[in-house]
Amino acid sequence: MIRYIFAVVLAMLSMTAVQAQRMLPKQKGLEINAGMLSKEISDNYYLNLTLTVNGKNGNYWIWGAEYTHQFSGYRDVQIPLETYTGEVGYSLQLLGDARKTVTLNAGLTAVAGYETINRSEAMLPDGSTILDKDNFVYGTGGRLTLETYLSDRFVLLLQGRTKVLWGTDLKQFRPSAGIGLRFNF
To answer: Is 179 within 8 Å of 34 (Cβ atoms)?
Structure first.
């Protein structure tokens, strides 16, 4: 009987020990994100490629590159506005279960990049001239991310983000929402 109890206890302990370890310090992840900048026009979107490096307690470093594409209306013409940015920051785990299956993280980043207006063409088809110029931009970004593990290596991300940029002739405050997938290696 003692052998049977010992075998059951050992089997139960081994089941909990078999669970994958998640958010290990120094573990890296590559994530791809896409989302919308506003709900006005369907062509307002962003694409983001980010490298993450895990720290302690579910926190991680963020290194990312982003492309945003949006349109601004002028009479009958849609003027393309494109921004290329890089960001570096840190994300803190706010909430999460013990196994890190679902977590809520908040991050703060420094942002720098370049924006173009109408692909650097000042003249519009109707003869009007755009007075705003292409600029180098810089600022800060914030993100709130809900993360859930699909498997031991793949993480599904739902993000609410915002950027505040200076040096721009466009909107300074730029909120966005999106979805992403991270591969941990």
So the answer is: yes
Q: What are phi and psi of 134, to 5 degrees?
A: -70, 145
Mean pLDDT of 170-181: 92
CA-CA distance, 54 to 164, in Å (whole number)? Answer: 26
Residue 152's pLDDT is what? 83
pLDDT at 46: 95
Output the pLDDT for position 17: 41
Q: What is the pLDDT of residues 73-91, one digit of tens each?
A: 888 888 899 999 999 999 9
How does DSSP classify residue 53? E
Q: How far apart are the first and last CA of the chain?
A: 44
40: tokens are: 């006005």
Tokens 């302990």 map to which residue? 13
Angle (nearest 5°) at CA 112 between 69 and 110: 115
pTM to 2 decimals?
0.83
C-alpha distances (whole Å) from 98 to each of 22, 27, 174 are 10, 18, 34
Q: Is 64 exposed, middle or buried (0-12, 13-18, 19+ CB in 10 A)?
A: buried
Compute the chain's Rg from CA coordinates: 22
Q: Which residues pair with 138 in a beta bridge?
A: 112, 166
